[in-house]
Specification:
Shape: globular
Number of domains: 3
CATH class of the largest domain: Mainly Alpha
Helix content: 25-40%
Length: 431
């Protein structure tokens, strides 16, 4: 539940680790990374800067109780209007409660030791972004399981957002993040969002993911001219179509979608991308995904699919298993250890119980273990499944256990979907 109350944050010099701060000379540096925030009476230490834009910076913070969160700190508004902060906080407060939208915990004002007051959002801390997944793709497309998971989650978020009357207006890979604890993708960054029919932002969307009508409107605004009508929710579907095409191809398409060839016949380019990758994927899902993406990329926004219509695509009726790469890239509270147990150990009850106890003892060094399973038969025979109390513990265990030896064997540690584990469904993952 979002908290809309304000917290006024004040620091004294004794609150600060001054050795962590660069020397100041002559002017106030607004981009100085804070060392800590005091939020609702509690101290939160800054662990890292996660991102920095023109109007705001985002930090990973932790409390003394082991809780983690993100703080989005807006730059000082020279006009004193705090427009960006007020815009995003009001939108987020209005759309809270959907599992595929980042959770707003609260808002507060930060008073730095230099006397600068900044407005901040306290947000749910998320994990890897689709942008990072694309970097790791190394020009190879991601699995159908991952593409389907991302497409469904984003469409669910857009259905909710559009029903509430909002347009996200800046959908891009960097604004779609994985939630390790909730095991789904979520939308972030609503700084350009607006109520459909009441567009209050002239320049929307990011180059490479910008719909044709937004491109036209931005050009008119730059020339000081007014367009006939504001952009609609259809701009979000265009952006998602490009994101899914990039996930399928493993290639950033910014230059492609800016080309004259794309503007002349984008459908032919989509067909070419799919025919080039056709040997990698099974045929029927490829056709369904291609048609889904093409339905989002009509140049006429009136012909473009809606989020609700896209969700009933046949592509979402096909069950996929994750690749092992997916289970390495997307953290969950469940860890799966491979190359650990010999078959011979599984059928000697005394040895089996000893191994269970040894594995539990070892895994508890990295966090609170909720349950541990070593199947004696396929699927999952001889693999170790460890459910941690939270994804933070499983990520630490994965980092420290990978490459370790257990009974003379090198351990391979991946994550595993908590939902499947809870149902007792053990994927035969595609290698």
């Amino acid at each position: 539940m979002a908290c809309s109350s304000e917290s006024s944050v004040k620091f004294s010099s004794s609150d600060l680790n001054t050795t962590a701060m660069p020397q100041m000379s002559g002017h106030v540096e607004q981009n100085l990374q804070p060392v800590l925030f005091q939020i609702y009476g509690k101290i939160w230490n800054v662990q890292a800067r996660l991102g920095q834009g023109v109007s705001a910076s985002v930090y990973r913070v932790t409390s003394g109780h082991g809780s983690s969160a993100a703080v989005k700190e807006f730059q000082v508004d020279p006009q004193g209007g705090d427009y960006g902060y007020l815009k995003e906080s009001s939108v987020l407060e209005d759309i809270q409660g959907h599992k595929n939208i980042v959770t707003l915990y609260g808002v507060f004002t930060n008073h730095s030791p230099l006397g600068v007051a900044t407005r901040c959002l306290l947000l749910e801390l998320l994990d890897v972004s689709v942008s990072e997944l694309l970097v790791r793709a190394r020009n190879q497309g991601h699995s159908m399981w991952l593409i389907q998971h991302c497409a469904r989650d984003v469409l669910e978020a857009l259905c909710f957002l559009h029903r509430e009357g909002y347009v996200h207006a800046d959908l891009k890979p960097r604004n779609v993040l994985w939630s390790a604890d909730d095991e789904c993708f979520k939308l972030i960054d609503f700084g350009l969002s607006f109520k459909e029919g009441h567009q209050d932002v002239k320049y929307i969307q990011t180059d490479g993911y910008r719909a044709p009508e937004a491109e036209l409107q931005n050009s008119l605004a730059q020339a000081g001219l007014e367009g006939d009508a504001g952009c609609t929710a259809a701009v979000d579907l265009w952006s998602l179509g490009i994101i899914l095409l990039e996930l399928f191809s493993g290639i950033k398409l910014k230059e492609t979608v800016r080309s004259q060839e794309w503007k002349a016949n984008s459908a032919a380019i989509v067909d070419h991308i799919f025919s080039s990758n056709a040997m990698v994927y099974p045929a029927i899902p490829v056709f369904h995904l291609r048609d889904l993406i093409k339905s989002m990329l009509h140049h006429d926004p009136k012909l473009r699919s809606t989020a609700e219509a896209a969700l009933i695509s046949p592509f979402f009726n096909i069950p996929f298993a994750p690749h092992i790469e997916d289970l390495v890239l997307l953290p969950t509270p469940v860890l799966r250890l491979l190359n650990v147990i010999d078959d011979s150990h599984l059928h000697n009850e005394e040895e089996y119980e000893d191994i269970i106890e040894d594995m539990r003892e070892e895994c508890q060094k990295y966090g609170s273990v909720v349950s541990l399973l070593i199947p004696k038969e396929n699927p999952g025979k001889g693999q170790v499944y460890v459910e941690y109390a939270n994804a933070g513990d499983s990520k630490e265990a994965q980092r420290l256990l990978t490459g370790r030896t257990f009974d003379g064997k090198f351990v391979v540690a991946t994550f595993y979907p908590l939902s499947a584990y809870k149902r007792g469904y053990l994927y035969q993952t595609v290698q």
